[in-house]
Design brief:
Length: 531
């Protein structure tokens, strides 16, 4: 009987559990080595250690997968449950649980369709929470003082943005450098947005009035960091208005939906951020001109209206002449009328005077005296009572007058204080106004002087030109120069005398020349011929 066929197995080698586990580990690792496995991501867990544990499955089988903390940090795309991926790693065993598993180094979506499906699912989820609602979007400031830019400091994007801002309307720019792709992109961009919002107004670093998140074009994998939920929530929570300029015009990321404004390119974001200063200056000049024309037209219209009304009034002497004539007429008639009245009254008084006798006058006086004595008896007690009433009324009026006088004095003092304060403020403004006017005029004079120096012909001489003069003035052609007995050439550092026909030259020392006086007969004497 063959020992190998011994069914009892009394001669079989006794293996330990560790030996069997090690043998299985060596077989699996030696047979497969590094593999690429395609499947759907199942359960995903990530404990506090930083390692990631997940399942890869299809319709019939499941493989346990694990990625260590360092490998997770390097992943461009992290697996999520329900996502179809291609995992690359080494197949091995875990003796502690008698199972085999895949140590995953790299995870990539199984085609663009999977990424787009995951992106659409995330977009619907965030839209359902209201992160993309138009009611939450803020208006972009018309002319921000400080602009914060979140982008890579070494790319062409920041140069394009700065160049465009310099061309349109230079502003103060704060750059927050971040990674614009890879695993570090999403947390750095979210941290930059929240960092700009955390700045306090009036602090040592000015708080931006506008944030631009920018990146150049790329594939969907390159732009994936701007689709992460952390970036979208940071853009939604930003109290500072935010413009997203990620990718080209055809690229769309989730931050575009959450931002207050989307720009097709970073250059377009800079154009949205600030207006064109030259256009503003032109518009202001046009408005000023229109305002001046309107004011002049209004004044001319009022002046013409006043002249028309003055013509309708007529001359002053025409208005007073009839009244003066009537006065002269009544003055002439007044003397005869008075004399006629005296004669008529005298005629009526003569018969009455003949009837008046002394007895009648004494009797009339006696009657009137008795009447007066009766009235005096009745009036003797009345003055005292009336005096007392008048005294009481006078006292009451005196008290009211004193109270009113006190109020008037208080009010006058208050008005004097207010008037003094206003007068002091006006005096301070009046003191500052001449100085400000003088400073403005001095600045304008300096600008005009610099323009005069720039446009003068001496500046042209410094660029390599010269002025040719003859006995009759400036020479402007070779034909005229050949006929001159002598020429003088002025350079930027001095003058040189030249005798045509080989007669030699003589140079004057390089010293400043007084500016020639401009003559009416020679309009170009102060400029000369430049060649």
């Amino acid at each position: 009987m063959d020992l190998l066929d011994d069914e009892s197995g009394s001669n079989a080698h006794d293996y330990t559990v560790s030996e069997i586990s090690g043998a299985v580990k060596r077989v699996i690792e030696g047979e497969f080595g590094r593999v690429r496995v395609r499947g759907e991501v199942g359960r995903v867990s990530m404990p506090r250690s930083g390692h990631m544990y997940f399942d890869l499955k299809d319709d019939r089988s499941v493989i346990a997968a694990v990625s260590w903390k360092g490998q997770v940090a390097k992943m461009a795309v992290r697996p999520e449950e329900g996502m179809e991926v291609i995992a690359t790693g080494k197949l091995t065993t875990f003796p502690g649980q008698s199972k085999y598993q895949l140590i995953v180094d790299e995870v990539e979506p199984a085609g663009a369709g999977a990424l787009m499906a995951m992106l659409e699912a995330r977009r619907k989820q965030l839209a359902g929470e209201g992160l993309f609602d138009a009611a939450h979007k803020r208006a972009i400031p018309w002319l921000p003082q400080v602009i914060g830019v979140v982008t890579s400091p070494s790319g062409a994007v920041i140069r394009d943005i700065l160049h465009r801002l310099r061309e349109r309307f230079p502003r103060h720019v704060l750059i927050w450098p971040v990674a614009v792709q890879g695993q570090a992109c999403a947390p750095e961009v979210a941290r930059a947005i929240r960092g700009f919002n955390a700045m306090k107004p009036g602090g040592p670093i000015p708080r931006p009035d506008l944030i631009i998140v920018a990146r150049g074009g790329g594939s969907i994998e390159d732009l994936w960091g701007f689709n992460e939920e952390a970036v979208v929530r940071a853009a939604f929570d930003s109290e500072i208005p935010l413009i997203s300029a990620v990718g080209h015009e055809t690229d769309t990321t989730l931050i575009d939906y959450a931002s207050d404004r989307r720009a097709p390119t970073p250059t377009a974001a800079a154009e949205m951020a600030v207006p064109v200063r030259a256009e503003l200056a032109s518009w202001l000049a046009e408005v000023q001109a229109r305002m001046g024309r309107a004011a002049r037209g209004r004044l001319e219209q009022r002046d013409q209206r006043l002249r028309d009304l003055s013509r309708g009034l007529g001359r002053p002497e025409t208005l007073t002449q009839p009244a003066r004539q009537r006065f002269d007429m009544w003055a002439d008639r007044l003397g005869p009328a008075l004399r006629t009245l005296v004669l008529r009254k005298g005629t009526r008084f003569a018969p009455l005077s003949a009837r008046i006798e002394p007895r009648l006058l004494r009797q009339f006086m006696a009657n009137e005296s008795r009447r007066l004595e009766g009235f005096a008896g009745r009036l003797r007690p009345a003055p005292g009572a009336r005096l007392r009433r008048a005294q009481s009324d006078l006292d009451m009026l005196a008290r009211r007058l004193q109270a009113a006088n006190a109020r008037m004095i208080t009010e006058a003092q208050r008005r004097n204080r207010e008037g003094g304060a206003q007068l002091t403020a006006l005096a301070a403004r009046l003191d500052r106004l001449p100085q400000a006017k003088i400073e403005a005029l001095r600045e304008r004079l300096d600008r005009l002087d610099r323009m005069r120096q720039t446009l003068g012909y001496t500046e042209t001489l410094k660029r390599g030109y010269a002025v040719v003069r003859g006995p009759d003035g400036v020479v402007t052609s070779a034909e005229v120069a050949g006929k001159q007995p002598g020429l003088e050439i002025e350079f930027s550092d001095g003058r040189l005398a030249v005798i045509p026909g080989g007669g030699g030259t003589s140079a004057s020392p390089a010293k400043p020349k007084p500016k020639p006086t401009k003559k009416k007969s020679d309009p170009g004497a102060d400029q000369g011929s430049l060649f």
